[in-house]
Amino acid sequence: MRALPRHVVDHADATRLERGDGGAMFGVVPKPLWERRAPADERNRITLGLRPLLVRTPDERILIDAGVGGALGPKDADIYGVDQTEHLDHALAAAGLTASDIDLVVATHLHFDHVGGFTTRVDGAIRPRFPRARYVINRHEWQDATHPHERNHASYFADTFVPLLEAGVVDFTDHDVEIRPGIHLERASGHTMHHQLVRLTSEDRTALYVADLMPTTAHVDEAWIMGYDLYPMDTLATKKRVLAQAIAGEYVIFFEHDPAIEAGVIRQDGRRKRVDPVV
Ligand SMILES: [Zn+2]
Questions:
Q1: CA of 268 to the centre of ligand 1 (A)
Q2: How far apart are alpha carbons 252 and 246 in whole angstroms?
Q3: 110 CA distance to ligand 1 centroid (A)?
Q4: Is 48 within 8 Å of 18 (Cβ atoms)?
């Protein structure tokens, strides 16, 4: 890559914004504290973005995650307050692209709000949403997603990923791989056991798409860990490691679920951390 990756400025398919449960988004952090960073509505929901990342290399257009797509039925769409006025097609159009222009699609993990847009229903059949693309998926995450248990089954919708295997478009990866020059997938355990972040290096700059490790700028402090996380102590360890690198290297961090700030540089500010937006 010659330049820092350009990313989709708007938000994911069928989902400009959603509203997530404030308590679940902040785990053990008491509401009087989190509410100052993320005001709640009358149903205790906070506003979240759903923001895939578009990376353009000289040869390819690569999409990392694809939002919720059409994965939710009406009841869940209401619970999550999904705003469908703008979605990934609009964001791609704003970048001068359509779904057919995407060469590679990468999953950070297989939760429905990240891969719901991977497939689409055409005449009753579920097909890959990006007709020319290969899909890069971690094989261990796939194993967990296809063998869910009581604690995680509500997060995995088989229709959003199993049809890709049947269509023969999945490239499975192991942990910590360079999928293209300057594009690394790194294990970032905690949210799920095999959750990954994406490291983009371009000349002397590094950017991280951290997915659900730090879903919003309110999550940059170590203890602000989602209640959704299956392994919160792993999240803590991963976060400490990533934050130390990110602060020292002045990395650009992409926040997938932040309602307002797409990307920023994290800086230590006394005992707290602060995010200086870069977009
Ligand atoms: Zn997730």
A1: 26
A2: 8
A3: 7
A4: yes
C-alpha 64 to ligand 1 mean position (Å):
14
CA 277 to chain centre: 18
| pLDDT score at 6 | 38
275: Cβ contacts below 8 Å, ≥ 6 apart: 217, 220, 253, 255, 261, 264, 265, 266, 267
Ligand 1 centre to CA of 270 (Å) is 30
Q: Strands 263-269 and 252-254: what pairing?
A: antiparallel
Residue 83 carries which DSSP code? B
Q: Tell how far the Cα of 28 is from the centroid of ligand 1, in angstroms.
A: 18
State the pTM of this model: 0.92
Q: What is the DSSP letter of 165?
A: H
Q: What is the mean pLDDT of residues 194-207?
A: 92
Residue 72 C-alpha from the chain's centroid = 17
DSSP state of 163: H
